[in-house]
Design goal:
homodimer; five-stranded antiparallel β-sheet; 15 helices; globular
Chain lengths: 428, 428
Amino acid sequence: VSVAADLARVVGAEHVLAPPPAWALHDATEWAGLRGSAEALVRPGSTEEVAGVVAWCAERGVPVTPRGGGTGLAGGCVPDGGVVLALDRLDRVVEVEPESWRMVVGAGVTTARVRRVAAENGLHFPPDPGAAESSQIGGNVATNAGGPHTLGFGATRRWVVGVEAVLGTGEVLDARRLHRDVAPYDLLGLLCGSEGTLAVITEVHLRLLPAYSPEPPVLAFYDDAEAGCAAAAAVLAEGQQPAVLDFLDAGALASAGRSGGFALLAEGAELEGAVASDDVWRWREGIAHAVAAQRGGKLSEDVAVPLARLAELVDGTVEIGARHGLEACSWGHAGDGISHGAFMLDASDARQVQRAHAAAEELFDLALALGGTLSGEHGLGRLKAHRAEEALGAPTVAAMRAVKAALDPLGILNPGVKLPRGPLRDRP
Amino acid sequence: VSVAADLARVVGAEHVLAPPPAWALHDATEWAGLRGSAEALVRPGSTEEVAGVVAWCAERGVPVTPRGGGTGLAGGCVPDGGVVLALDRLDRVVEVEPESWRMVVGAGVTTARVRRVAAENGLHFPPDPGAAESSQIGGNVATNAGGPHTLGFGATRRWVVGVEAVLGTGEVLDARRLHRDVAPYDLLGLLCGSEGTLAVITEVHLRLLPAYSPEPPVLAFYDDAEAGCAAAAAVLAEGQQPAVLDFLDAGALASAGRSGGFALLAEGAELEGAVASDDVWRWREGIAHAVAAQRGGKLSEDVAVPLARLAELVDGTVEIGARHGLEACSWGHAGDGISHGAFMLDASDARQVQRAHAAAEELFDLALALGGTLSGEHGLGRLKAHRAEEALGAPTVAAMRAVKAALDPLGILNPGVKLPRGPLRDRP
């Protein structure tokens, strides 16, 4: 095959797999039935090799799907033909400067390793997305990943002061910055959360914090979503500034072996009737798996709404599931209004998968009707791109297309992700 | 004049001044001799009128210079022909939601008023740029303005969750977002700090904090810049997290009536030998004026370097001034490595102004040689755009030009600011 032979010359034959292995064709949406196709998996070992692969693809109009840990929940690294470009070999911790709270790492370093290396140097990397042992920092930047502590510490973007990235032309962009630098446009911020559609991130410069001693988390139970969300809103209205203010609904609690109508999990806030619980974080981290284990799979979303409308979203999620014959539950980050609504399913049953996707569309309808967004955490990926224009408005999507055309003029980077296929794909 | 008559139909005759008044042709760089020219000053009263003005200019290729409070220090609102578009009539506080820490304001609301309205509602708007009584929030967003508290609280960008803005085509972009929303590209972040070259910001949605009770500031004196900068670095290396870590060199101290080789001003940090000082903030706020008063004017810069190189920058600033026969001093934000190097001058003496500009060029050379940036706070504006490519590299400037062409295809928004005049201006 020409693709494999040509790219072998760029990265070495042992780093090209054609056809690609099955794991390179899906991400964590596999539970919801999403699988793609590609001609080859390529594993470059340096920024220069990434640039070489992208330039080769640009010359031939071959789509490139950048791939980090493959833990995404929106199908953002599910390929639709072309080449899967895995960043896992860029796994070097390049530099650590403990006294100035900085670290430089390759895009393929896992999130958990970033946090460990930071801790070994007396520092703290605040973002705490799920699947930290598998997810890679490059993917975290590409999705501007968040997690429970985003409320208090911001998402990945806040901690990135520079990236090295390869644009859709194969050109290398060195967007390193000081902590404060207002000379350039914020291209760095533009790449954060662009889901691999504007550039392939190859190296990340992080600003960290000194070691962090979290307050012990507390857990408080409420009769229902309305009471619990009102309590969450009261925490903020009182001027408390929690580092975490998460929630779990009745179904999520039941999946994880606890009974109750609704619960708040807070760090750095006082909640009436709350109890401290040392193992609550380990328990909380297991929720997604516990929910998936109910039927063997789940379609998990991440819509977000203003906190004042969160209870309606939580109750509505269960109702939508019921209408489609699926058990549903939700948990998430109340302080940021983010709900991981999940429809439980048996992924081997095509009808259930189909019903779950229909339910998800109704969940998107509900979130938008409540003044919310399609995605507070996962991105639009391949699963939600078709609703971008409805959610964001035509002028925003037109501006996004123009920016995409500026940095990826041939439209080869992750086509069909984030932006629906449109004029870009019709170009020669 | 056709410009005035046509635009009078858009905004009303009483809101068009042709020729424009003198104050509309300069910003705070007037002290350094920068004055522009324009055909008219236009003062639209709504986003729709702003869109009407920009659309009229786009059709005719007339340059538009958006103008906030005119407090900029890089010539970012000094017009080079065309129309000055002042946002001062968009001065409405549209909405305040104290319980969810949010506020929506017109672009023309002053920074001081944002802070006052926040305080009246039990909230705090952290950014504290200078000239807060005159500067406007739209200009703060357009320059991603910072100040002493940026070290602890981030610059303006961190507190903006949405803008309404008019692109170079006259189209209105409604980039409102929830606190967490990863559906769109970060167009919002892209507009922050774009210095009016990508869009005219007309409305700003802010996320605030609960009321803030600052620790009293402390002041510590050192023999010289080397000792003081070492003390600042030690604060961070010890894991202290100051909200403010500012510095003043000997010349700045002398201008402000204090003697000493070098001083650190900190909030939220312990410094050996420091003394608390209740009136230190008022004194600190007067520094820029006190320095300017020495000779009647100053050319004030805002280069930034890694903290480890700050002492070299501070000493080098005085040496550069001496070589050009100008007294020089510096003060700024040590924690962020930002130095306001100022060359004192008599603005009525053209030779002094010329020597100051030559000195500034050498200061830029020094900052870049120390691994720094041309601008940590003020932006590139019209004064520093000519060095953008050298400072940022050709690929970054090419990407900036492509992004500019995407949002302002005719190149009418603030041409010559941020990006040097180039291919964009050659377009029809």
